[in-house]
Amino acid sequence: MSWVRQPSEKLLAVKPAPEIGPVSIRMEQPSDAPQIRDLVEASFPGLGEALLVDRLRSDGDLVLSLVAEDGGVVVGYIAFSRINIEGAEAPFGAVALAPLAVYSDYQSQGVATQLVREGHACLAFLGETLSVVLGEPQYYGRFGYSNRRVAGFESEYQSPFLMGLSFGAAPWEGRLVYPPAFGALAEDAPLQAHD
Ligand SMILES: CC(C)(COP(=O)(O)OP(=O)(O)OC[C@H]1O[C@@H](n2cnc3c(N)ncnc32)[C@H](O)[C@@H]1OP(=O)(O)O)[C@@H](O)C(=O)NCCC(=O)NCCS
To answer: Is 139 in the pocket of ligand 1 (CB under 6 A)?
Structure first.
């Protein structure tokens, strides 16, 4: 008699979890565009976010975009685009984080966390000092984003979902001017988290 129990029929019938290899983070390459589009379309309702990425790219407004890759397949994506702060002082260039997406099979394994952290490190290296996001406070709070950091900015998105994180000296007041690509998205959902 064996002490090792044989797996039941029910257990054997359960679909095995997908095999997920080590995910690597790298800069977006031109050839990644179709895969990024598929991922972003799959991750958000409607086409707004996918069109946002296409337009940011074609307008030259992307400051940094990274992909998470598993065996040549893009499984995660993050973009930071140029956003200006206009006001009493000279215009100041900050970045807006949007969108952030990871395929469902790869979620809850820290892939988005790697993308955000790697993104912040690259931005700091590039001399950027302020990142702004319109998203879920419970999620972005874990990276240090807060509404307090951007509460002094004028913006049509001003709400608890608008948050900022600084890596260096940056203004606390002024008007946030998003790149034109965000215009179409705002018409769809003016005050919803969209990254
Ligand atoms: C949000 C998203 C990018 C997270 O990707 P991920 O690789 O699973 O993220 P991580 O593994 O780094 O972190 C997972 C954690 O984030 C939490 N989380 C995911 N989405 C969240 C949300 N909208 N609000 C609050 N927490 C959230 C998970 O519950 C999990 O919590 P835990 O660490 O306590 O278990 C992914 O779920 C996604 O692509 N969603 C669809 C697109 C989207 O909504 N993007 C914007 C999010 S505001």
So the answer is: yes
Plot region of 174 (φ>0 → left; ψ -120 to 50 → alpha; else → beta): left
Task: Tell how far the Cα of 110 is from the centroid of ligand 1, in angstroms.
Answer: 9
Closest atom, ligand 1, to C-alpha of 115: 12
Q: Which of 162, 185, 180, 167 is nearest to 94 (CA)?
A: 167
Q: 128 in ligand 1 pocket by Cβ < 6 Å? A: no
* pLDDT tens for each residue of 130-188: 999 999 999 999 999 999 999 999 999 999 999 999 999 999 999 999 999 998 776 65
Q: Where are the domains of the chain?
A: 21-188
Look up the CATH architecture of domain 21-188: 3-Layer(aba) Sandwich (3.40)
Question: Mean pLDDT score of the chain, rounded to an integer?
Answer: 88
pLDDT for 17 beyond 70: no
The Å distance, Cα 140 to ligand 1 centre, comes to 9
Spacing, Cα 158 to ligand 1 middle (Å): 22
Cα distances (Å, whole numbers) of residue 141 to 96, 113, 135: 15, 12, 10
